[in-house]
Structure formats: structure tokens, C-alpha cells
Amino acid sequence: MKRKTSFRLLALTMLIALVSACSEPVAKYTNVIPADASTIVSLHLSALGSKAGAADKENKEALQQLTDVLKNEMNAAAFQQLEGVLNNPAKSGIDLEAPIYLFQSANFEAAIVAKVNSEDDLQALLSAAEKEQISTPVAEGDGYRYTTLGEQALLAFTPEALLVVGYHNPAQLEEAKANAAAALHQGEEQSMSANEGFKKMQAAKGDVNMYLPLKGMLKDYANLVNQNVPEDIDWKELVMLGALSFENGKIDWEIEWYTENEALAAQLKEQGQATTSPIQNTYLKNLPQSTLMVISAGLNGEEIMKYLQENKDFQKSITVDQLNKLKTLIGAFKNDATAGITNVSLMGMPSFIMYAEAQNSDALKALYEEKEELGLGRGEDIVQLGENEYVFKSRKLNVFFGIKDNTLYATNDEQAYKNIGKPVSPSAADTDYAAEIKGENAAVIINVDAIRQLPAVQMLAQYGGKEIVVYLNLAEKISYLKMTGNAEKSNITLQLKDKNVNSLKQIVELIKQYAGIQN
Predict the structure, then answer these.
(1) Strand ranges, E, within 329-413
(2) Which residues make beta-bridge pairs with 353?
(3) 433, 478 in Cβ contact below 8 A?
(4) Distance separating alpha carbons of residues 128 and 112, to the nearest angstrom
(5) What is the pLDDT of residues 384-397, one digit of tens each?
(6) Phi and psi of 83, rounded to 5°?
(7) Looking at the DSSP assignment, which residues form a beta bridge with residue 356?
(8) pTM of the model
(9) What's the rounded Cα separation, in Å, for the pair 93 and 97?
(10) How many CA atoms lie within 13 A of 18 on its CB side?
């Protein structure tokens, strides 16, 4: 009989707990972020700390040294609380496994929101800060509690969320408290929690994720590109979703353009697929491995012209004759177009070479035959060197250009012109990035390692000041910067020479070295 009673009591207790949980759900801490937020950045502190090597022996020793210093400078009770947090960050009352969000909105110039896992622990930490006169005593607000830091920041919190709001002077404090109260009390539908783009950002795998609406980030650019699409599509509805990750030997930043406007999404996809094609690395074999910068793209000239002709502003700015000539020029491009800066002289003059697959030579012939209409300056001329071979001459430089074996070329390097179309060894095709850009629609490579070897840069390293030497030493750790993408997605990668150690840990070690705290 006692066993049956105990079972019924347990069942009743579980039922009451379940009903209570259903009737009073715990609010999401992200509900604090207003629906009109113009910029949102999330930080995964736990992952960042792990990748930075926070658990490594040398960093633990550095933390202990810091703890010993603080022990001699702090109130005993306050130090005891702080020491507990340093040894176990979860005792701060903040859930460090959950992302921390930084955001801006109409009412918040700068704000931070974090998930609270223990209001009691947070209260204890703030009490310790009060003893050290870092913050004011915790006070009761309308459904929340708060304190201030140095008359510059308001910390308002509930059992679910901590909101930190910056303000400039005491007169703004009451406004900051009112805005904080409204944010802490708002529901999911009034917040970013209901936004599909924000949900997509939360699902990203980055250590740092970003939600950046184009209308707030690049107003001038948004107005410009909006002229290139039909009137019923507004490019300002685009949102840039970014995911920054620190991996072994590299830093990756993935960028995706997101919109809830289905017509705009379709326009982006269609335009990208029609005007571009996958890079085939056709011309990397013609560029030296030491090329300082490589720019490559797969092009469809005919489709590019179609989109230009649909642009009303473009139609108004060009004559029929000019349009036909442009069609001949741009329409000739097909598949790979690749350019490279191969050298920079001590005088700062860059040497370049460009290759592009072309369907005919009509455009170059027309350019030469009508050179008088180009408005060439004094001392400038275009001279024909042979069939489909030309040179633009000026007082400062000569640019050789032409078409050979269905390849359009241009270069200001006479030696490169004499060997045009011939493979070089070692070439850019032998680099690590060659395989990485193949199949992408567009790519830019900045060869930091090659730039570091330039005579002009070597002179800077020898005769430059301390600040320049620091920057060059940092560059010594980098192999190359790679940017790839299409109309929908892009990727930026900073490739380091040491591929075995996490990039964030390498950054931390450099900071420790230059701060003079290297073990």
C-alpha cells in the first residue's frame, strides 16, 4: 500500500512539474534583441577559448600569475568570489556555452545580451564588483534588476538574460533603463528570435556569426545596385550572413546573401548562373608561382551584355554605335579570364599580365582601326606589331596586347610578351590555392609570402621603423589570402604557413610575444 501511494505521489509531482513548464515557458534570452536590429554579431566564447588554448598548461600558469597579483590588490571577500569565477567561469552566472550577442538597433547604439544560468551567481559576482567600487549596488527595476559601471554602461538582468547597454552621460541613464526594460520584457514576435534570417545565422557553424542587413551596412552601395534590377525588386532587402571560423592553419569567413524576397533570391541565382561559369584554371600555367596577386573568373560575355542592356541607366548613357562596339568586345569573352600582378619595382611600378579566352579578334581590330576616336593623349599611340598583335605606347609605359590561339592577352612586361602563351615553371598551377579556386566562379589571391620576398619589402624590413618590422613579422606567418565566390555565396580564407596549430592560438601566441608575456 505504501509503495502504491509513493508511486501516485511521484506521478502527481511529475504531472505538476510538466503542467507548470507548459504554462510558464522560460523566455529565450535572444528575445531581448529587437526586431529592428541593424547589426548582430554572436560570439561562441567557449569554442573561442578552447581554440585559443585556454586550457593549455602555459596559459593556466599565466592565469595563476594574474590571480596572485589580484589577491594582493582586492578585498578578501571580493577576491574569493573572483577566484571562484576564474577557476570555474560557469560561477559567473553566465552560460558561456551559449552564444553572446552584440547588436545595434534604433534604441541601442551598442548592446550585449548573454544567457543567465544562475541569477544568484551573477548577483554574487556583481556584489564583489561593488565591493571593489567597479559597479553600483544592484537595484530593483520593473521586473528586472540592474547596476551601472562607471556611468558608461547599464547592466540589467532577469533570471534568463543579461543585457549590457552603453550610454554617454548620466542624463541618458533613465532612457537606457526604459529601453532595457522594454527589451527584457518583449516576446518572441517582437524580437529577432522570429526572424528567419536570424535563425539561419544561429545555425551557422562559425565561432563568430554575423547578421548584417545591406540597407544598414552599405547604403550607397545598396542604392547603386538597386538600379540594375527590375523596379519590383529592392536589393536593400538583402542580408549578409557571415560565419567566421578559426581552424588549424587558417581563418575562414563564409558569407551568404540571404533574403526573404523570393523574386530577389531568384534574380541573384539566375544572374550568377547566366553571366559566370566555373573557373577551369586554363591560364595558371602561364603565370609564375611567385605572382603577387591573381584575379580569375569564369565569364559569359554574351549574357553579361544582356544584363547590361536591361539596365535603364546604362541604356541612357550609351549610343547605339558604342553599344555595338561594346557587344563586340565583351561578347567575345568566354570561360576563363585570369590576370596577375607579377612584380613591383622599387619605383612602385607593377608588372601585370592578363589572359582571357576569346571567340574572335574583331574587337581588337575595331579598336586599332578607330584609335583616332579614343581621345589618346600627347605621346600616346596604338601601333600594330603583326597580325592581331598591338602595343599601346605612352611616355610612362607600353602595353602589349593581342589575340593568339583564341586567347586575348595584355601585358606591360616586354619579356612576358615575348613568351606569351608559353607555360612557366614553377607556375601558379603548382600552388596550394590552384585546386581551391578551380570550380569557383570568381577568385582573388593575394600571395603574401611572395610579397614578403620583394626587394622593396626586404628594404623596409631592414630600414623601416619598429612598427613596420612588427607588421612584416606578422606577415611572415601568412601564406596567402584567398577570396572566392559567386552572386549567392563567398568565402575569404587567410591561409597561414603553420597548418598544424589553430589560427586563433597562433594569434594569441603572437600577442603574448609582442606584449612581453611570452613564457
Answers:
(1) 333-344, 350-358, 381-386, 389-393, 398-404, 407-411
(2) 340, 411
(3) no
(4) 21
(5) 999 999 999 988 88
(6) -60, -40
(7) 337, 408
(8) 0.83
(9) 12
(10) 6
